[in-house]
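Entry
Fold in token form

___
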Amino acid sequence: MEEIREKLNHQASRQEVEKVGDIVKQRLLERIPNYYQGGANGLLNRIINRLGGHFVTAFRLGYAGFGVNQFYISYDYYDSTFKHVKVEYKTVSDDLFLTSHDIDAIVNGLMIKVEDYLEEFG
């Protein structure tokens, strides 16, 4: 149990969150059209600014997205009854580890926001 807690603490560290953010950003930039002024990176920055610095999506473990100049992951969420759930150490288990499927879900969720933005603002 203690080993799982240590791994979860490491997963939530700023350094690890930044690594995940780099992966997510790279995958987004591969999928975002680059024919806009400033290319894909310029468009991504415009979307983040347009959304007030909160370009975020829900995934299995909580929320993830880009604020102004940084990627973040929030490990709390609302369940299907809209009750606020926060991951606590009492409930640690292997299924709280971030997986490649979670990263895919984050990228896909954010890409939906990109498509919505392009549809609305072109």
Summary: The chain has one domain: 2-121. The CA atoms of residues 50 and 117 lie 9 Å apart. The beta strands are 55-59, 62-67, 70-74, 76-78, 84-86.
